[in-house]
Amino acid sequence: MSSEEQEPTKAIAEKTIEEKASKSIITKIPENMTAMSDIDLIGSMFSIFSPSGDEHAMIAYVTQYLRDAEIEYEIDTAGNIYFANHVKGDKRILLNAHMDTVGSAAPDIIVEHQNNKGTVLRSTNNQVIGGDDKCGVFAVLKTINNKAIDTPLSGLLTVSEETGCNGARHAMEHHSGKFKNVVFNITIDRNGNTDIITQNSDYKLCSDVMETMLNEWGKDFGLKSCNGSISDVSEIVTELNINGINLFAGYYNAHSGSEYVVMEHLFRSLAFIQHILPKLHGHFTAHPEQVEYKPTRAVYNWSYQGAGAY
Which residues is 195 bridged to in the sheet? Predict the structure, then answer.
């Protein structure tokens, strides 16, 4: 068959696969979710079809994990989930991610060990797997449930980020009082494995002093500060008047059927979070005058292509 004939055939095959993809599959929830392997936990989250406005299955999955971890939680009218780790006290660090995804049907997940990448999760049916931002959800849950961490943490998992950060906006407009002791926000919703987003398309997310420290802390991890697009962090820092960042989460080709996640890159994000948590808490404990930060409007141009962090 000629190359000219192969291309239409390939396109028809991909279209057929997409048409056959189901909008509903059954995801088994084990007796104790905290005993699941990391691959099984995140793979199960990817298998849940949770487009913006239809996150109920993902909410049920996450809250069952929190129950099994014996972590108390609350849910607001929109579906956002609020919780905290085992450490009491103020100068808390907020961890944030969103539960909704962009997709048209449920993905069939496969795990591959690729020599040039690592442990890769992707779909076999040309569907969005939702690494944006279930990688972030995974990172928040694993960090909040890590009993070795002695930094006081709060968690916020939101809905409807992909339609314009509506879940985070609802949380900040109606329940910002729940975060009165928070001094810094870490949103985990950036593609790749190198970026610390300190400025979104709408706001400068942290002070120059904080950005300098973050770059210093990131050197050993090969990380750098840079600009991003849109994510929940903007809604959070502008309401709470604190510093914040959007951190890489190890997903690639977001919002497409070719999306994939590299687990080693996601683990790298968790390692960096754990590295900076005590540093952030120590800094703001020693310098309480630097907690308040009023985000200023961003000064660079960015072309809007739909909500989501890139």
Answer: 224
- Spatial CA neighbour of 201 closest among 238, 234, 161, 224: 234
pLDDT in tens, 43-82: 999 999 999 999 999 999 999 999 999 999 999 999 999 9
CA distance 36 to 30: 8
**What global pTM score does this model have?**
0.90
Omega cis (within 30) before 232? no
Structure tokens at 295: 């985000």
Supply φ then ψ for residue 155, to 5 degrees: -125, 145
Spatial separation of the C-alpha atoms in residues 273 and 43, rounded to whole Å: 22
What is the residue-wise DSSP string for 17-74? Answer: HHHH--S-------S-GGGS-HHHHHHHHHHS--BTT--HHHHHHHHHHHHHTT--EE
